[in-house]
Design brief:
Length: 185
Amino acid sequence: MNRFSAEPRESASLKAIVLLALAVCSFTGCAPFATFPADGQGPNVYPWMAPCPEVMATSLREAHQRVGSTTPFVYNLPANMSKMAWNDVQSRLGPTARRMTDGDTVVWNLERFGIRNTTAFSDIVFWNNGKSVLLTVSLERDNVMPFKFSHLQRFYVSGNVPPQSNYASSEKTPGLDESGVGPSE
């Protein structure tokens, strides 16, 4: 008869699995946001690739609905955005939204956005006739489901320069072709 039970071996295996799971969770919790424009802290994010257009469109739509639904829905995206990304965001926003043109005084200017696994954020400056409010829109999702609104923070800022339309510069981005893809290697 075997004097040693299999219980200690199973218990040790279970403990090892639990410790490994905790280690993995602690490392992924420190993962930085991938931001556009890049901030040098995390991996690169390409604004024409999923889920970037979804994050930009959802953030702009939620900010407009929650802060200024009675104002025109005129938006601006960050500089160096591909035409493909602009078109994707426009199609998600629908016919009530339009790209900013120089001279617009009421603008939802998306300055940057970031994505990390199941969370995302966007910093949007709402310009209304010379006055500005910085909005940080936070989004969440379950695994590969669509992002949904989580919460919004407002920061009142002053002294900033009104935005210029970034759409023209997106057509002239060096190193990117019409689809927004860089040169092949």
